[in-house]
Amino acid sequence: MVEQPTPVVELNNVTKSYRIGRSEVRALRGVTLSIPARAFTMLVAPSGSGKSTLLNLIGCIDSPTSGVVTVAGETVARLSDRALSDFRAQKIGFIFQGFSLVPVLSAYENVEYPLRLMRVPAAARRRATEAMLEAVGLSEQRHRRPNELSGGQKQRVAIARALVKEPEIVLADEPTANLDSETGASIVALMRQMQTRSKTTFIFATHDPHLMSQADQLVAMRDGLLTNDGGATRHV
Amino acid sequence: MFKIAFRSIFRNARRSLTTMLTIAIGTAALLVFAAYALYDVYILQTATVQRGGHLTVYHKGFFDFGSGDPALWGIPDHASVIELIKDDAVLKPLTAVVTPVQGLGGIAENPESGGSRTFFGTGFVPADQSRLQRWNEYGVGEALDNTVLDSDETDRGVIGVGLARNLGLCETLHLKDCPMPPADAPQRGNGEVAAMPVQDFSALAEPGTARSAIPRIDLMAATAGGAPNIVALKIGRVEKQGAREMDDGYVVMNLKLAQQLVYGRGDRRVTGIIVQLNRSEDIATARRRLEVLFAEHRLKLEVRDFREINAYYGQTEDFFRSMFSFIAVLIGVVVLFTVSNTMSMNVMERIAEIGTTRALGVRRGRVRSQFLLEGGMLGVLGASFGVALAFAAAAAVNHSGLTWTPPGDAHAIPLKLYLLGASPAIIGVWAVLILVATLAAFVPANRAARLPIVDALRHV
Hints:
The complex is a heterodimer of chains A (about 240) and B (about 450).
Chain A: E1 7-20, E2 23-36, E3 40-44, H1 51-58, E4 66-71, E5 74-75, H2 81-91, E6 92-95, H3 107-117, H4 122-135, H5 151-163, E7 169-173, H6 181-198, E8 201-205, H7 209-212, E9 217-222, E10 225-226, E11 232-233
Parallel strand pairs in A: 3-8, 3-9, 6-7, 7-8
Antiparallel strand pairs in A: 1-2, 1-4, 4-5, 9-10, 9-11
Helix pairs in contact in A: 3-4, 3-5, 4-5
Chain B: H1 2-9, H2 13-52, E1 55-59, H3 62-66, H4 78-87, E2 95-109, E3 116-124, H5 126-132, E4 156-160, H6 161-166, E5 216-222, E6 228-239, H7 244-247, E7 250-254, H8 255-263, E8 272-277, H9 283-296, E9 301-305, H10 306-309, H11 311-349, H12 351-360, H13 364-398, E10 403-404, E11 413-414, H14 423-440, H15 442-449, H16 453-458
Parallel strand pairs in B: 3-7, 4-6
Antiparallel strand pairs in B: 1-8, 1-9, 2-3, 2-5, 2-8, 4-7, 5-6, 10-11
Helix pairs in contact in B: 1-13, 2-11, 2-13, 2-14, 11-13, 11-14, 11-15, 13-14, 13-15
């Protein structure tokens, strides 16, 4: 019998509703999900099925209408806004679909930014930032601002920014969407390396078949509900 | 945070530069006005202190009740009081001149034409008046040394152009801008004026008073004993005074002559003892010391400073102060709304960035501080440029050779902006406008800090 790893994310009967004008949109309708630590978890769902909402809740940037969300052992609802900010800074890395780089900072400064938030000493910060830029193949472009980078380069900066602090959880929305297959494969290899070395859990929302083939756990969603109950798990 | 703030304000360079220029122009306008006002006040202060010192010692009650009868309120044994002041260890290093002065009023007459007019005179010790006129602490005026009073020739004095005109002396004295009466002016001996009794003061003059080649007038006043008295004054110079009412009755003479007129052969007192200090900032110290000194010696004397004696000085200061406050409020409001508008637009353009940084772990307080810092930086850059602009404007004006005639003055003087002396104003205006710019960013900064992260990330 395979030993189940400790879950790093647990959602218990979580609902999330939005009000748009007079109508209410139920993005999540009672999701119960357990994501094991050090796993590659893929959220597979068509647009509008609640995938982004689920990532937002796990990323502690949104709160559920009902239910309990536990991330890295912390019940999110119990944390103040300030504590949540610190929690995100320490534990979670984001790779946004639209890159979301800080436009006035260079590639180097964007990657370094999370380490500054964690008050990492300057020397360690420089070492980690340079190593991460080297790993994503952007050492040469380190001084360029986002508007001087291609879409793929921006994506790699965004990935480097999420990984540089070696967080407990990385949330990624279509992380390989703007990358060619070779670069995509090298990025996935880098993430695998980090998963092994730093015990990082990766949670992806993706349609990329190559990335899906790497999944340890596949979570399928439709209309705000899990369709496979998070059960299609293949542990590494 | 500083790096992001600095770079962010130049993302929309045109908007930020316009905002900074607004702050800069506001700062420069306020400082130029402050420099102009300060220069005016210093000129006024210099003229006032050159004429009557910083402090004047009077007989107790004279200032409120004695101006109508200066002879009655004279200071007896004023020489001892002056010695007391001059010998005091505290006052000695503070004082430049300590000198007696006699104020008086009466009627002036031109013995040649018979024209007469009331006058307001002051008697000085010639050498001391000369020293009084050299005071120039701020370097804004000319250190004058143009007294015509003479220790040996006690009957020589100065009159106003208005008095000369009223006494029909313009032609005799060859004065410019001093018209003689028109041909159809009322003449003595004609019509209803002829019915009035003719006053001939010269009959009161001391026997043997010789007619001199130098034009002279007769001054008549009541002595301390109530008897009429008259002296002759040789007109050494005619000086135009700024205020017409003063010009029409202005007489300055030797103290001895003034005392002769007021006290006759009796006990010669003075109405005041002028104390001129080296520096105006010592007024309070010197005044306190004088009051202690007089109390210790049981002297019935009081001390007044030049602001109390010359009410217009305080009024001028108050006028400039209120004008400055009014302009400062206007500029403050303009800066407030300009920076607030700029920062609101900055926040609107950076909503997605705010969402990203918040997701990465930036606290609300830091987002707020970020935008407050940007507002403050706009203020720092704008206000600093404004200070530089004010110095450039001051240099340009100071070297332009422009002149103007200040209110209450008779002569045009160089137009200057005394910006170097206005360092408290520079620091104050600079700091306050930075504070205003920072506060103006508060509402947009707060709005940025309170944005829901998910909504901000979705913002396009």
